[in-house]
Amino acid sequence: MKRIIILITALLIYVLSFGQDIKTINLKDCYKTAVENHPLYKQFDLYDATYQLKEKNLNINYLPAFSLNGQATYQSDVTKIPFQLPNMNIEEMSKDQYKITFDVTQIIYDGGLTQKHKNINKVDVKINKQAVEIELYKLKERVNQVYFNIIYFKENKKILNISKKNIELKLKTANAAVENGILLQSDVDALKVGMISLEQKITEVEIGMLSSIKMLKELTTLDINESTNFDFPDVEININEFQNLRPEYQLLNLKQTKISALKEVVSAKKLPRLAGFGKTGYGRPGFDMLSNEFDFFYFVGAQISWSPFNWDKSQREKKILSIKNKIINTQKEAFNKNLKIDLESKLFEIKKYEELIIKDIEIIELRKKITKTASSKFDNGIITSSDYIEKVNAETQAQLNLQTHKIQLVIAKINYLSSIGKL
Asked: Which of 23, 304, 344, 380 has the highest CB neighbour count under 10 A?
């Protein structure tokens, strides 16, 4: 008794441990891992790093600018005093002159130009990232295709295996009937042909499934195999509200945001700018032009610069940007129009599969009855095995059609969501 308990316990542990090895994944997991493991995903961090460096460079505009300058010259003539003052000996200036200076400039007000350029920097990094999002969105669409191929193959394999088992059972009965002289060997051979035909289909399905699993592993780097469970998503769509969330459409919006930022830069360029400055140095001559000695010197000051009139250059630049904005508006209108046409087509496709599924269920119920009757007739020698195989194949095909249409319905709904950018 103890040995039986130990065997049962060991068997339960084996079954439980085996069950733990069977993983279940869903479509969102595949999206996430496919995106995060794609080489293009690294560009997000690279664009962030570029943004930070540009931001630091722009912040330098708020800091004082320093420069060290040196100069040595020889000139053909110098300023002279044409007369001598009593009791004063004014030395003639040297024609070789030397100067080294240290200059400081501090922007006090730049009309907000630096801030406007920082705004453009923010938009630029968003545009670059959005371009990556577009490529990664295409990757999700690729994942959809492979993911549902796997589900399609797995469901087909289940149905084909059930049909194969039914024929195997019928084959055992037929063999016994041949031995008893009720059936002919040709009936058994016809059943064997039907089973081999199913085995061929199962082999095709298995190869297709393994190929798709390998592709999905490459896309997602997930540890999956033929025993992995693939969640069949329940997809709901809302057809009452149109909202374009496509990444390509969002890129157009960002380009318009950049145009608005560029207009602000044009406006800021027309505003006055105020700066403080200073200079100190050592050279000959200094600020005392009557002294021919090397001397230290310095000065400080402030300057304002303003160009209120630039021959309407700013207005023309703004008009150019406005035209570009209108061009993008036409692109958005065309995008929305084409999208609405595409969505109408996808809605009809969804409706088609919904109606096909209703008919599939009706057909399967009838096919089951026909197959059950054929099985009884075959057992009683009323019909041949070929007739029975024909009915079995018809029921199997009806089951396959139902599963195919169910998968196609979900794919059609996901394609609808993909079209509006809701993957």
From this structure: 23
Please name the residues in contact with 69: beta carbons below 8 A apart, sequence gap of 6 or more: 99, 100, 101, 102, 103
Helix (H) or strand (E) holding 292: none
Span 173-185, pLDDT tens digits: 888 888 877 778 8
Longest alpha-carbon distance in the chain: 156
Cβ neighbour number for residue 154 with a 10 Å cutoff? 20
CA distance 18 to 14: 6
Give the residue among 258, 246, 244 at the shortest CA–CA distance from 126: 258
> Helix, strand, or coil here: 295?
strand
pLDDT digits (tens, 9 = 90+) for 200-243: 999 999 999 999 999 999 999 999 998 999 999 888 888 887 88
Tell me which residue has tokens 């722009």: 58
Residues in contact with 422: Cβ distance below 8 Å, sequence separation at least 6, in sequence order: 245
Which superfamily is assigned to 2-36+110-271+306-419 in CATH?
Outer membrane efflux proteins (OEP) (1.20.1600.10)
C-alpha distances (whole Å) from 41 to each of 209, 215, 222, 346 are 28, 19, 17, 30
* Contact of 212 with 205, CB cutoff 8 Å: no
Per the prediction, the chain carries an average pLDDT of 89
